[in-house]
């Protein structure tokens, strides 16, 4: 006999996301000599971070994995806790319910449904941008405001949408003549949007975007991602 990877049988495509979560959890956290189908109900957060990182790199086919600050944001999201420190999260454990049963506060989806949407979007449309480290991605809207509020007019960064599954949004700072600043988030782009017009060309189109945070001129950062036909048309 040979042990295979876990198998889940589904009867409809809308069960696919839940099936992938079940396979991931079982494959990552079960013991070789366990009773069949018995898997831990809770696992250390550090083990979950390793699993999410391996899954992300394998799905997207990139060598650029998740960073410490990404794990911090993901911990805040899955535990619904914005007051704990990075060290606090490292000693916690996460449950199957938190991973793929409980709906995130104010949303209509679970943590895994959201993360899987990010995976799919990055794999299909954003692989080269992620691999070039042009997308921060896993960062909260509140922390974006903190980062950008002191930056020059037109400074921007890219983050994965909190409110939509499989969306990437551009946050940019607008500085008034009186020196005041406000951070705006452009409506998230889906995989369908980016299949019509690439992220690089959309950034190129938006004149209010000038420098990728912290201070890289956007043509320098994204120039290699512009469509050459459009570049030649100017």
UniProtKB/TrEMBL annotation:
Its main location: cytoplasm. Keywords: Activator, Cytoplasm, DNA-binding, Nucleus, Phosphoprotein, SH2 domain, Transcription, Transcription regulation. One of its GO terms (biological process) is cell surface receptor signaling pathway. This is STAT6 protein. InterPro entries: p53-like_TF_DNA-bd_sf (IPR008967), SH2 (IPR000980), SH2_dom_sf (IPR036860), STAT (IPR001217), STAT_linker (IPR048988). Residues 114-213 form the SH2 domain. Pfam families: SH2 (PF00017), STAT_linker (PF21354). One of its GO terms (cellular component) is cytoplasm. Transmembrane segments: none annotated. It comes from the Eukaryota. One of its GO terms (molecular function) is DNA binding. It is found in: Cytoplasm; Nucleus. Belongs to the transcription factor STAT family.
């Amino acid at each position: 006999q040979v042990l295979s990877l876990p198998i889940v049988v589904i009867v409809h495509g809308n069960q696919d996301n839940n099936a992938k979560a079940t396979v991931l959890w079982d494959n990552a956290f079960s013991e070789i000599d366990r009773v069949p189908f018995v898997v831990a109900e809770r696992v250390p957060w550090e083990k979950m971070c390793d699993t999410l990182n391996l899954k992300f790199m394998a799905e997207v086919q990139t060598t650029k994995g998740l960073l410490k600050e990404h794990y911090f944001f993901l911990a805040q999201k899955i535990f619904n806790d914005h007051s704990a420190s990075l060290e606090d999260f490292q000693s916690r454990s996460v449950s199957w319910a938190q991973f793929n049963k409980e709906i995130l506060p104010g949303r209509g989806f679970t943590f895994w449904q959201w993360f899987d949407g990010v995976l799919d979007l990055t794999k299909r449309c954003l692989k080269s941008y992620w691999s070039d480290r042009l997308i921060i991605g896993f960062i909260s809207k509140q922390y974006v405001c903190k980062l950008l509020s002191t930056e020059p007019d037109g400074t921007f960064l890219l983050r994965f949408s909190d409110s939509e599954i499989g969306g990437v949004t551009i946050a940019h700072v607008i500085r008034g003549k009186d020196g005041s600043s406000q951070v705006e988030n452009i409506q998230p782009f889906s995989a369908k949007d980016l299949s019509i017009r690439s992220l690089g060309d959309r950034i190129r189109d938006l004149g209010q975007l000038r420098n990728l945070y912290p201070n890289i001129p956007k043509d320098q950062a994204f120039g290699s991602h512009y469509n050459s036909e459009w570049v030649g048309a100017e």
